[in-house]
Prior knowledge:
mainly beta; five-stranded antiparallel sheet; five-stranded mixed β-barrel; 40% strand; bacterial flagellum biogenesis; SAF
Amino acid sequence: MIVRKSxxxxxxxxxTCGINSVNAKTSGSDESLRFNYxxxxxxxxxxxxxxxxxxxxxxVEVVANxxxxxxxxxxxxxxxxxxxxxxxxxxxxxxIEIECVGKANWRTYVPVRIYRYKNxxxxxxxxxxxxMISESDLVFSEVDLNRVRSNVxxxxxxxxxxRIKKRIAAGQAISASDTCLVCEGQSVTIVAQDKALRITAAxxxxxxxxxxxxxxxxxxxxNKSIQAVVTGLNEVTVNL
Length: 240
C-alpha cells in the first residue's frame, strides 16, 4: 500500500509536526491522541520520505507496509517519537519505530520499502553473446536501482560498438559486466604514440574493458604486460 498524502486533520487538535490521520480526543483535563493503523503507517511513510533523496534525474517512491486494520487505536498523551529501528537504515528496506513515552508507554514497528527509479540503458530486443551493439539495439528503461547489482549506463554512446558477453533479455538493463570493447583473452591492437610517432603491435587482453577504461594487455612479441587505455573495438593505446 502506498500511503498517500491526503490527510485527515483531527477536529480537536492540529499537529504541526506532520502527524495526520490521527483521531485526537479530550476527556476533561486529560488530553490524549489516538493513532489508528493508518495514522501509524503515515507517520512511518512521512519520516522516510523526508529523509531519502532521489537519484540524479530519477525519482523515489516510499511504501509503508500495511498494518492490521483490526488493531486497536493506540493512545498517547503527546506526539510519539518516530525514528529508525535499531540496526535499520534507509536502503531498499527499513523499519520505523514509533514510540509513546510516558504513562501509555507503547512501541510499534512499521516496515517500509524504498524504491529508487532511474532511466538507464537497456536492450531493445534479446541480445546474444558476441553481438556487437548498435544504437538501434538500445532503449532507455526505468529500473529500480536497488535491484541492479552492478554498474549500469545512462549514456548510450558508451556502449555502441561494444560486444555482449552473455544473453540479455529485451528490456533488461545492460551493466558493465555484460559488455566489453576489449574482451579478456582476445587479440588486441596496441597503439603506442606521442605527438610525432605512432607504433602498433599485436597483443592479448588480460581483462575486459570499455572505452576510456584502463586494462592490462600482454605484448605478443615481448610477453610483457602493460597498462593501456581502451580506445576502440579490440584497440588499446599507450601514450609514450
